[in-house]
Amino acid sequence: MSKVIVLGAGMVGSAMAIDMAKNHDVTLTDISKSVLDKVKQKHNKLTVSQLDVCNKASLQSLIKQYDLVINAVPGFLGFETLKSIIKAGMNVIDIAFFPENSLELDALAKEKNVTAIVDCGVAPGMDNVILGYYNEKMKLNDFECLVGGLPKQKKWPFCYKAPFSPIDVIEEYTRPARYVQHGEEVVREPLTDCDYVEFDKVGTLESFNSDGLRSLIYTMPHIPNMKEKTLRYPGHVEYVRVLKESGFFSEKKIDVNGTQVSPLDFTSKILFNEWKLGETEKELTVFRVTLKGENAEGQSEEIVYNMHDEYCEATNTSSMARTTGYTATAAANLFLKGLFTEKGVFPPELVGRHEVCFKHFIKYLEERDIYYVKRTRLI
Q1: Where are the alpha helices (H) located in the chain, listed in sequence order?
Q2: What's the pTM value of the predicted model, to 2 decimals?
Q3: DSSP conformational letter for 34
Q4: What pLDDT score does 294 carry?
Q5: Would you identify the CATH topology of the domain 126-310?
Q6: Topology of 3-118 in CATH?
């Protein structure tokens, strides 16, 4: 039994701590005592500890007592927290999804003899694992990932609920989307190139450009076409674009009756209630990865992985927490079993390229009723 510390007791962090506690001695930390007390009521085997990760001395002193750190703090704290963890010489699984490039910490991780597996969610995460595995088996030409978290119940006008802060969602709608076309990096406005796509159990969804390729732009430069798109119910994009084009996402303050107000802050406050996902509200995750290329026999082949997951009533765990968090705990257990021992910073595609690691991810998630269903065809 290993000693594991989880930083961040939000929806995903708490789900990971509970999952890891099945086989390990787990401590869950957060800046909020009330949040920790709530999780402790759900699972009394957990040890909880109040911690402010911005206090680097306290953070580094505490984590050195453990065998592995899982970093699940909010994105704006993620990069500096990961840096502190690596500086302390601690191995880490990271799911903070910060905007900075984690590969900038690779040299530091190697210097400190640390293994840091980053971006371990559903996407980024499992799409990277799948791509990394098939990149070893085929000469790939095309990679596309379609992914979205959606409420079961559609509520007009947005038909959307967020398992995290509206500001994080809005950033997805404002950050330029990078993808790769004919071997060149292309930057497009988010919320563009909308397509309607059919999915079993859900029906028609709309996909749009978002900045989800992250590390793949740097680690898979030989693949000429790569794209990630977000999924929503039809109509969502149009309403969001109206807000965006009207200035509601601007950070530039405006004068309202003598008070300086940021439109983005105002919009986030308004949307918080509209988009907030209830603790037991039913939602689902839809995922499709499509790979095209030349197989070992020299034939053109298409490989598609679909995943559909829903809120788990047995454990009162959201689908987003399950599909995101259990990918990270799969990585944590993979590391603790000694299946991956390389030193440095590794996005999931550099872990999934090893067959034993790829199979571990798939099996671990199947044991938790999350199924990545594969189909292939010659094209």
Answers
A1: 11-20, 33-42, 56-63, 75-87, 106-111, 126-137, 166-174, 216-219, 236-245, 263-275, 319-336, 349-352, 355-366
A2: 0.95
A3: H
A4: 97
A5: Dihydrodipicolinate Reductase; domain 2 (3.30.360)
A6: Rossmann fold (3.40.50)
Q: pLDDT value at position 77?
A: 94
Orientation angle between helical segments 11-20 and 319-336, nearest 10 degrees = 40
Q: Which residue ranges make up each domain of the chain? A: 3-118, 126-310
C-alpha angle 212-218-222 in degrees, rounded to nearest 5:
105
Is the Cβ–Cβ distance between 209 and 173 less than 8 Å?
Answer: no
User: Got the DSSP string for 329-363?
Assistant: HHHHHHHHTTS----EEE-THHHHTSHHHHHHHHH
pLDDT given for residue 276 in this prediction: 86
The C-alpha angle 152, 162, 119, rounded to 5 degrees, equals: 110
* Residue-level pLDDT at 341: 95
Angle among Cα 153, 273, 266 to the nearest 5 degrees reads 135
Residue-wise DSSP of 218-256? HH-TT-SEEEEEEEE-TTHHHHHHHHHHTTTT--S-EEE
For the chain, what is the largest distance between any 2 Cα atoms, rounded to a whole number of angstroms?
A: 71
State residue 246's pLDDT score.
97
Instruction: Look at the block and give the residue holding tokens 């989880």.
Output: 6
Among residues 282, 283, 285, 292, the alpha carbon closest in space to that of 307 is found at 285
Question: For each successive 10 residues of the chain (379 residues), what is the average pLDDT?
Answer: 95 95 96 94 90 96 97 94 98 94 97 98 97 98 97 93 78 92 95 96 96 94 97 96 95 95 93 86 96 96 98 92 97 97 98 98 98 97
Cα–Cα separations (whole angstroms), residue 171 to 13, 69, 165, 177: 21, 27, 10, 11
CA-CA distance, 149 to 319, in Å (whole number)? 8
Position 278 scores a pLDDT of 83
Q: Contact 213/178 with Cβ under 8 angstroms?
A: yes
For residue 19, which amino acid is it?
D
Strand-pair partners of 144: 227, 290
378 phi, psi to nearest 5 deg: -80, 140
